Amino acid sequence: MPETPPLTDVASLSFEAALAELDAIVRKLEGGQAKLEEAIADYERGAALRRHCEAKLAEAEGKVQAIVAGPAGGPEGATLRDMA
Predict the structure, then answer these.
(1) From CA 50, how far away is CA 72, in angstroms rounded?
(2) Would you give the DSSP letter of residue 35?
(3) Do 80 and 64 form a contact (C-beta atoms < 8 A)?
(4) For residue 20, what pLDDT is reported?
């Protein structure tokens, strides 16, 4: 049986790479063909990837809010969602 390559540390992944891996895990779990231990490990990895993606999005939202507020400040409580 071939060895599985070691998993990349979630914290070192870009948002896009983490999201792509999370999408692959979701599709694999939805297929329901994995053994129980493998499915649990995939679920744990997926949970870590989701938290990582959420943190990256929050960081990006904070940067955009700082840009929108500008040097004089802007409306308090405004979020990216408010701008859409």
Answers:
(1) 35
(2) -
(3) yes
(4) 97
